[in-house]
Design brief:
The protein is mainly beta and 262 residues long. The protein has two domains: 47 residues, FAH (SH3 type barrels), CATH 2.30.30.370; 211 residues, Fumarylacetoacetase-like, C-terminal domain (Fumarylacetoacetate hydrolase, domain 2, Alpha-Beta Complex), CATH 3.90.850.10. Helices cover 12% and strands 40% of the residues. The strands form three sheets. Strands 1, 2, 3, 4, 5, 6, 7, 8, 11, 12, 14 and 17 form a twelve-stranded mixed sheet that branches.
Length: 262
């Protein structure tokens, strides 16, 4: 089932996607709910980020191809963290929905895409095992983990600017609740041209392991999201381009790129 969060007539709802329409859900998607009689054409609503998370976690260098790409790009200055499993926080203020514009900061070298599958937590989760983790996951969505070029990465102790500037966290278009996350393609297109394609079967740390490892120390809350790493290559983006990340079993996350107007 696909669950969208959307706005219509100034009001926000969750709803079940039914073909080219979305039916309003009554109640909480993290608890008891039912379908209402109200539905709207998808073309006439504004799709919003699927949840309002307390925490937005990221797991980097989670595919060997991407690690090797970074090694070639950055040389000895790159220190892959995958073996040690070092998740990081992406600011929730960076989150935007499908169709929203990604803004390039004027003092960044550039911005680049990282198309990823994203875990959506469904209920409070603390110290769960890898086997238990699926019971705490509501579903999966698509993320584009936007980051910047090397200047900020080398000068800042953390990734606070590199990964968390306003608009650097596109998420959407909705949540798919019925999905095996470990065998789906992740496809990235720029202006309709395919730039990269990978498959989640190649993850170093799978989705259930990731949830379990983070929950050993941090409580995950309903609606929290965890983006799980880019499978392959990336490149700089420029204003005027349109970036799409597609997971066919979920949907397409589409965002135009623009420069910051100061």
């Amino acid at each position: 089932m696909k669950i969208a969060r959307f706005s219509v007539d100034g009001l926000d709802f969750h709803g079940k996607v039914e073909g080219d329409r979305v039916r309003v859900i009554k109640g909480s998607i993290f608890g008891d709910w039912e379908l209402s009689g109200a539905s709207y054409p998808l073309a006439q609503v504004k799709l919003l980020p699927p949840t309002r998370p307390v925490n937005y976690w990221g797991v980097g260098e989670n595919y060997a191809k991407h690690v090797n790409y970074r090694l070639e790009e950055m040389g000895e200055s790159f220190r892959p963290r995958s073996a040690a499993f070092t998740p990081w926080h992406k600011g929730v203020g960076s989150i935007i929905g499908t169709g929203d514009t990604i803004i390039i900061p004027p003092d960044a070298d550039w911005i680049e895409y990282e198309g990823e599958i994203c875990v959506v937590i469904g209920k409070p989760c603390f110290r769960v095992t890898e086997a238990e983790a699926p019971n705490y996951i509501l579903g999966y969505t698509v993320t584009n983990d936007i980051g910047t070029g090397p200047t900020w990465a080398k000068s800042d102790f953390s990734l606070w600017r590199v990964k968390s500037c306003d608009t650097f966290g596109p998420v959407g278009p909705w949540i798919e609740t019925d999905l095996d996350p470990h065998g789906v393609d992740i496809i990235v297109r720029v202006d309709g041209k395919e730039e990269d394609r990978g498959n989640t079967r190649d993850m170093i740390h799978n989705c259930f392991e990731i949830v379990s490892n983070i929950s050993r120390h941090i409580t995950l809350h309903p609606g929290d999201i965890i983006t799980t790493g880019a499978p392959g290559l990336t490149r700089p983006l420029k204003a005027g381009e349109v970036i799409e990340v597609e997971i066919p079993e979920i949907g397409v996350l589409r965002n135009p790129i623009a420069n910051l107007k100061e």
